[in-house]
User: Fold these one by one.
Assistant:
Number 1:
Amino acid sequence: MIKVGILTLSDKGSKGEREDLSGNTLIELSEIENWKVVKYEIIPDEKDQIVNILKTWVDKDGLDLIITTGGTGVYPRDVTPEATKEVIEKEIPGIPEYIRYISYPITPMAALTRGLAGVRKNTLIINLPGSPKAIKEIFPKLIPIIKHAVEKIKGDPSECARD
C-alpha cells in the first residue's frame, strides 16, 4: 500500500473562499487504487510553508508519495516548483515532461505548467496543476509510473526493462 500526502496550494482555498476540488479529486483517485491518503492540507502559496510541509511529510511522516496540486503556473504567487526544487534530492524530469505531453493535445496552455517531480529520501514528490479537469486527465496515466517509481525508491532490485 502506498502512503500518500496531498498538498493543495491555494490562497483562496486556504481561506475557505474556494472549495478544493483538485485535492478532493486526488483523494478519490488515490483511494480507487487502494492507496492510503494519510495527510491532506490546503495552504496558501507561500514558499516557506510549502517547503516545511514537504520536509515534515518526508522526514517525520515517511510518506511514499506526495502530490501537490496548484501553484505550477506563471502567476506571480505560483511558487510550488521553487519550493519543491529546494526539497528534492533527485529530480525526475521525465514525469513533468510526460504530464505536458499528455496535456498538449487537450490544451496548448500545458506549455505554461512548471511542475517538477523528484525524490527526497524514500518519497516521490510530484507537482500537478490545480485544475480538477487536469487532474482527471493526467493522474490515471501516471499510476503505473508512480507504482514503479515507489517500488524502485524503496529498493526493489528487479529489472526495469521489458522484453
Number 2:
Amino acid sequence: MTDPKLLEIFSDYIWPCCYFITGSIERIHKEFEIDIRWTAFPLHRDTPEEGKTLEELFKGRNIDIDRTMAHLKQVASGLGLPFGDRKMTYNSRLAQELGKWAESRDKGHEFHNSIFRSYFVDGQNIGKADVLVNVAESINLSGKDALKVIQDRACRDAVDSDWKRSYELRVTAVPTFLFGNQFSVGAQKYEVLEKLLLSNNVKRRTCNT
C-alpha cells in the first residue's frame, strides 16, 4: 500500500533535469503537508572514480556538447539556478550513500541541494571523499563522521535498496515522480506538481502569524 502523503522522487545527482527541479521541490516541501523522499537511481553507474569527459560520455550519440551546455545554462538561468562550465561527469554512488546518511540526520534537503551545486556549479568530482566531506561540513554535519560513513560504506545497503526499487518499478529515466500510484517523468514545473497534489486532496501548510 502506498503512503498517501509521500511524494517520491527517483533521481541522480549527475543529471541536470534532477538539479532543475530542486526549486520546485523546496517550494512543495514548504507549502504542502507532504513528505518527500529522494530515491537514488543508477544513471551512469560504470563511470570511473576519475570521471569521464562529456565527449567520452556521449561518444557516438551525435550530440553537440557546446550547444547542449549553452541550452542547459539558459534553462538554469530561467529557473534562477546557477550553472557552471562543466567539462566532466563523475560517479555519484558515494554521494548517494552520503545523502542517505544526511537524511538520517535530518539534513537531506540541504545535502541534496549542496551536492547538486557542487557538481553543476563548481564542477567538482562528487565521487571523491574530500569533496563529499566538504559538502557535509558546509551544511553543519560532522566531516569526521561523514568520512567514516564513506570509508565504511555504512549506507551501501540503503542505496542498493533504492536501486533495486527503481528496477522493480521499471523506472528508466530521471527525474521520475511517484505519488500514490501515479508516475510522472521529467523535470515537472511547480504548477504541475501543485495540481497533482491538490487533485489528491493534499493540504497546504497553514501559516502561523
